[in-house]
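If you are new to this repository, start here. Below is one unmodified record pulled from the training split, so you can see the exact layout before writing a loader.
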Amino acid sequence: MEEIFSTIKNLSEKYSEYTAQNLSKLVQIKSLSTKEKDVQLELKRQMEEARFDEVKIDGLGNVIGRIGNGSKILAIDGHMDTVDIGNLSNWDFDPLGGEIKDGYVHGRGTVDQKGGVAALVTSGRILNELGFDKNLTIYFVGSVIEEDCDGLCWKYIIEEDRIKPDFVISTEPTNLNIYRGQRGRMEMHVSFYGVSSHGSAPERGKNAIYMASKIALEIEKLNQRLADDEFLGKGSITVSEFVSESPSLCAVSDFARLHIDRRLTWGEDKMGAVKEIEKLIEGMNAKVDLLNYYEEAYTGLKYGMEKYYPTWKIPENHEIVSAGVRSFENLYGIKPKIDRWTFSTNGVATNGIYGIPTIGFGPGNEILAHAPNEKVAVDDLVVASAFYAAFAYEIS
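And here is the target side for that same chain:
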């Protein structure tokens, strides 16, 4: 077995340029949520070139490559959609150039998170070259719509494709550490209903903007009182949008709405979060709504889910964490750091909703996610591609 890990490490280094070039091609194809078609076709081509046993695109547009046909199922997931470029003047290089220079691949999505996908393609090539024949089916997934609605892709894969893995690795950036959890999140609207009157006599009306403003300040205070968790950190809440309506700019506002971004730590859930806001608006003509996502994928399919993404964490002594640690130690002779994400991932579905043991291991540093001058080290891609292949042997 020791020889296998040495061979995997050597092959990952041998294919470093191959991995970097594949990533460069993916970066050059802009792929916002629901608009991933072209990048998915390129990923499918790359998986077929790497001689996966099967490659398909499902109804939502996820690319799913398979190696093996065992009874135990491992899925390795990376989302292919990215956020937009933002202000181009903040970039020192072409964000869609995919330039390979000074040991890095440069561009939007290199860290978040096409780099992980390029690495998993190489890991599949390595497993094929080694003639992987363990009692394990491995699904390599290039998923869609994560930036708009984390976990939606896996809701589709599990409920519609009928693929439910025994273990999942998310290739979101972890700085080559093993991550075992994250805070959850949810989105809410708080709507306020006032009474309009002429702006010359505001006392005759009830101003919805004032109602909403008072609650916005109470939400700021609520943020300081939220629960904390030693591992995942503190829950948080913020107002991310304020909109209002009025019959006229010479009239009292009769409607206002706050958009709430709520991050949930361990022990917090959607019902408790809603009740916290309901308590703040008691006595007001106002209501709280938990939002839903329902959009058309690039395939033409409309699909959706509630915008509640549950908190999740895996015990440090869980089999999947231990297998990850052993995989890294077998490759590099040192123990990886075990940590958690600050942001949200598809783990909200795989573990948060469906209870599938999930860990994260990915190239790149998450501080570059959604930021200008995004880039990932080629060495990170090499380590990640070795890790995924080694994990397949270790978990089987």
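Two things worth knowing about this chain: The mean pLDDT is 98. The longest helix spans residues 110-129.
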